[in-house]
Amino acid sequence: MASVLVVEDDQFVRSALIRHLTDAAHTVRSVGTALEALREVAQLRFDVVILDLGLPDLDGSEALKMLRGITDVPVIIATARDDETEIVRLLNAGADDYLTKPFSVEHLSARMAAVLRRSRATGEAAPSTVIRVGGLTVDPLRRQAELDGARLDLTRREFDLLAFLAGRPGVVVPRRELLAEVWQQSYGDDQTIDVHLSWLRRKLGETAAAPRYLHTLRGVGVKLEPPGAEPPR
Question: What is the pTM of this model?
Fold first, then answer.
């Protein structure tokens, strides 16, 4: 079972989440402000954080940025905002998943289970072989990546995606396989993959229109290979 921090200022919602998570045998702590959440995360270890956006002291998106500055604990956003631009921004800022209020306890349980599977999978013993593709170096054991000798500042999910593709250079990986292996989901929204690919491309100094390492084959999948390996089109 997991150690969960609930960050929610609405007492009714907060109590319901605590009751549901406790009934599911999780260990739960709860706070009502962003600053309290930051103190909790700095002092204690959690497996997942459920973060409301409408907090009284700081907007949850700002709290997310601050959390990402001190921990890589998985964060599930709980929000009444369903704007696509906002959701993409939150994923880019480091959210692992999001739920739009109101949501059922079953939906929350399923999302939590998926996030925890991903987190625990990346915490298991990683391959010790350093992967090199062109000027790209990926060290799964140390969870570090470099491009032309410069360290890449990657989120946990960006690193997982890069390492998975780098371990299969030149192989077109279907989106369904990426969801299953990187996100540990049997189904999902392609937007999640697109967001992380876009963010990863920026850090590799490329774009979808002018790719160097990451190549998307529309309707097929994604592959990573060194610059110059892609034949002229």
Answer: 0.57
